[in-house]
Design brief:
about 45% helix, 2 domains, globular, six-stranded mixed β-sheet, Toxin ADP-ribosyltransferase, Chain A, domain 1
């Protein structure tokens, strides 16, 4: 919109309409968010009701996920660095305080993820949607064709029906990327009136096909094995098992065969 008074009023009107639309979706939210004990629920609700805040928190999840994989070498490949996305200027917050804001967002991400993981209940069908870039779409096609493994960092914020997931994509024709919807049956946390959350979904992409201009993927959950920190540290620091020498097993079998006649002769004597 153009600047000036009319532009400002138009922008305010658009913001009001967006707030009304979001408010209508969650207008029946009667959850108690008061008190320190309910802080994880409050942060989770704000991530959903205010998607911009949710994106800032989720950005920390992706940043830490990639940095950990890079430093720990879990994939055995060097990953590209994640570009720093500056936190928008907050009125009254000095520039030198932005690092603290990042740390607070990272703390919020950890609290939200841990609370979802601890609160997942019965298994349900869950749909969630988004947009995939050209390279990501090709990768998803390959994984789907091979029915290969797939993992979603952080948490999924899904819907109870495919129609709701489609509505969440919007109707704009100039959106970046290709529309994608995923479906899984997995344990989840149902909260914030109409949303379903799954923490760190690990699974297998059974199918990834185009349907009416939208690529739809079906995922089978493959739950992670739960370990304590002590068990995880023990496995992480354990020495790698030595690979058997080339032809080692065959050589042992041959030695046993060679020894057999000698043993029989000794027994006969």
């Amino acid at each position: 919109m153009e600047g000036g008074e009319d532009g400002a009023e138009g922008a305010e009107g658009m913001e009001a309409m967006m707030e009304t639309a979001a408010g209508d979706l969650y207008k029946d939210d009667s959850e108690d968010y008061n008190g320190a004990g309910n802080l994880p629920k409050l942060l989770l609700a704000q991530c959903v009701k205010n998607p911009y805040f949710g994106d800032l928190v989720k950005m920390q999840v992706v940043k830490w996920e990639f940095e950990y994989v890079e430093t720990a070498g879990l994939l055995g490949v060097k990953l590209p660095p994640i570009p720093e996305i500056p936190v928008p200027k907050v009125p009254g917050v000095p520039v030198d305080q932005f690092d603290k804001v990042q740390q607070q967002l990272a703390g919020a991400a950890g609290m939200v993820g841990a609370s979802i993981d601890a609160s997942e209940g019965d298994a349900k069908d869950v749909w969630w949607s988004g947009y995939a870039g050209e390279d990501d779409l090709e990768t998803l096609k390959e994984v789907g064709a091979a029915q290969g493994p797939i993992m979603f960092p952080g948490w999924i914020c899904g819907w109870a029906t495919e129609d709701e997931a489609k509505k969440d994509l919007g109707t704009s024709d100039d959106a970046q990327g290709t529309k994608v919807i995923f479906k899984v049956n997995a344990k989840c946390l149902s909260a914030v009136v109409c949303r379903h959350f799954i923490q760190r979904l690990n699974g297998k992409l059974d199918k990834f096909e185009e349907k009416d201009g939208i690529f739809v993927g079906e995922v089978s959950e493959v739950p992670f094995e739960a370990d304590t920190l002590a068990e995880w540290a023990k496995k992480k620091d354990a020495p790698a098992e030595a690979a058997p020498a080339e032809g080692g097993e065959e050589k042992k079998d041959e030695e046993k065969k060679d020894d057999a006649p000698a043993e029989m002769e000794a027994a006969a004597e």
